[in-house]
Each structure stands twice: as C-alpha cells, then as structure tokens.
Amino acid sequence: xxxxxxxxxxxxxxxxxxxxxxxxxxxxxxxxxxxxxxxxxxxxxxxxxxxxxxxxxxxxxxxxxxxxxxxxxxxxxxxxxxxxxxxxxxxxxxxxxxxxxxxxxxxxxxxxxxxxxxxxxxxxxxxxxxxxxxxxxxxxxxxxxxxxxxxxxxxxxxxxxxxxxxxxxxxxxxxxxxxxxxxxxxxxxxxxxxxxxxxxxxxxxxxxxxxxxxxxxxxxxxxxxxxxxxxxxxxxxxxxxxxxxxxxxxxxxxxxxxxxxxxxxxxxxxxxxxxxxxxxxxxxxxxxxxxxxxxxxxxxxxxxxxxxxxxxxxxxxxxxxxxxxxxxxxxxxxxxxxxxxxxxxxxxxxxxxxxxxxxxxxxxxxxxxxxxxxxxxxxxxxxxxxxxxxxxxxxxxxxxxxxxxxxxxxx
Length: 411
Hints:
The chain is α/β, with parallel strands linked by helices and 411 residues long. The chain has helices spanning 2-12, 15-22, 27-33, 38-48, 62-71, 91-96, 120-127, 204-211, 235-238, 279-283, 293-300, 344-355, 357-360, 382-387, 405-410; strands at residues 51-53, 81-84, 105-110, 138-143, 151-152, 168-172, 174-175, 194-198, 219-224, 248-253, 274-277, 307-310, 319-321, 327-329, 366-369, 391-394. Residues 317-330 have low confidence and may be disordered.
C-alpha cells in the first residue's frame, strides 16, 4: 500500500533527518505521532520530552509529572529542561530525588498562594533523597506570592541548590538566611558565573555561602525594593571573594534611606566594568556636598569602570494623581510627566564625572540614569558629554541592561 511504503521510507531516513521533519509539528501532533507505533514513539520521544512544562491545579502538575516518570523511567534521559509553574514541597523534592543524566536547566516559579505545607521531619527525610543533577547549569527558584511573607528555606533545603556544574543561579523572593549554618564550601559552586538574588532576605554569612566556593563569578545582581538586610558598607567585603573575576554588579536598590550613609568602597574591584547603584548608597551623605566629589570618586568607585547606571536618582516610588484624584505608582500614562529636573547634587555629580573623566575614571564610556518617566530630559548635559567622549542617556523603568561580558571587555 502507498501509505505503508511512505511510512517505511520515512523510517529508513537518518534519525537527524526525521527530527528535522518532525520539528515542524506542534507538541500536540508530536504526541499523536507517538501513538502510531513503537518506532514512531522511539523517534519522537526525545523531541517531545526534551523540554517539560507543568501547570498547577491540572492533570499536568508536578505530582503528575513525578508519577509519569516513575511509570516511564526511560523518559528521564530525554529531559534537558524542566519548567515548573509551582513549588510543590513534596513533589518537587521527589522529582529532585531522580537523577536526570541530561538535565541542563530548571525553572521553578510560584506566584499563587502556597497551600501545601509539610512538617520538618518529612521535609528532612525527603531532602536526604535529593540527588545532584550532573549536567545542571541553570537554576531559577522564584516564589513570589502577593501579600505573603517571604518563603523561608531551612538549612537542609540547601541541598536543592547543590549542583556542582551550575553556571547561572537565580533566587527570588525567598528567605535563605538559614544557609548561614552551612559549611563554607557546601554548595560546590566553583563554576558559577551569574548570580541573581532578587527581593530576598539573607544574613551576611548566608550570602557568603553562595560566594565562597566560586572564583569565576562575573555577573551579580542584588535587588531590593525595601530596606537592605544589613549595612550597605559591608557589601564590598561580602563580594571580595570574587573581586578579581567580577565584571558586572547590579545593585538595584530602590529604598531611599541607606543604613549608615557612609558609602561603599569598590576601589579594589579592578575588573569591575559595569555598576548599577544609587549614588547615595555608593557615596554616602558626603555626596550632598559638591566640594567632596574630588575625594569621594577615587575613594568609592571601581577604577576601571566603563558603564555607570545611576539607580533611583528619580525615585520609582513617586506617586502621581490624575485629574480624578486616582493615585497610581510611578508609571505615568503616555505623554504625562511631572517635568521634574535633576537634583542639584545629581547634576553636579554627572558634570564632575564627565569633565574629570580623564583624571578619575579614564575608561568611563556610559552614564545612564534611572527612572526618567517623570523627568525632563537633561538636554543641557548632552553637548558636554559628547565633548568629553561620554554617552549620557535616560532609562525608563522598563529598560533593563545587562551586557555581555565579552562586549564590556572590548569597550
């Protein structure tokens, strides 16, 4: 029969060619193709299961995935990426008790109320079964539940992050302060290059456990909308284990009141090329006095800085009221502006960095300013910046910059 001959011809094609053809099918059609025969199933399953998604409160949630893999263990070897839209405290730990030989990426995101809780004894017993994933390089762990306290991890939960091949780790909206009890080198992250810690609570010692095992970190993001967990002046010492490798440091701190207002000393970070920071945190109270700038800049800034992003010089927390009296946060409607101008201290800082660039920061190429939705464009500064070879520009709250290390090194 023609159809039979067509099928046999397809199965005689090299596997790479079969996959090229099958990639034009959506996941539903691929799943249907697996039902045709054993041969078709063997061809399609590596494609179908290379990236696995779960959906909370459905038959395809994380507990269902665990049950499926226990019934079909051969599928484990096909999975390269897991995208889980919930943190199920039992099922996720059961999932991590399976060794995935080719798993490279895990994303765990929870944005609705956590309704499932387990006791300490059960949590510890499940954690004891968790295995290192031998090829895992990317891990995102994000639990953001509105109007709920930060999700607190216990000391024994550190096993969830203990994968020695990790190169990128993102921890968001969690409390990992209990990690301060860990041994210094417990987490094995000698290959870690990117670390993003967003809206988390931690102690100095807990954060240190993320940094101490690695000497290759190139890119660190630490964001806080509220007060920092400890004094800003301690962060340079905290980051000192990676001062040689660090190229990009993003301190997106939107709380306007520093702990001590003494500033931070990053002069020992010789390879730091990109810095996003509120100037009040970096320079301290003395930054209010223009006469102090010649002393402050060499004492606070990394000497080989190429890109400076001035965070929060126009506070994102500004509140606006429309003509009906409705208050909305600092995202004005199109065309709406308060026509604010730069504060004198910020204007003088920018002017000083531009005109004294050759003496204080000779490699500086870019000065960028957040958040300019509510600000009049400081056009009077652009000719000055051009004259001194600096690119000056405004940034909106929707603008996110995190350049490639290779591009920065080539500047």
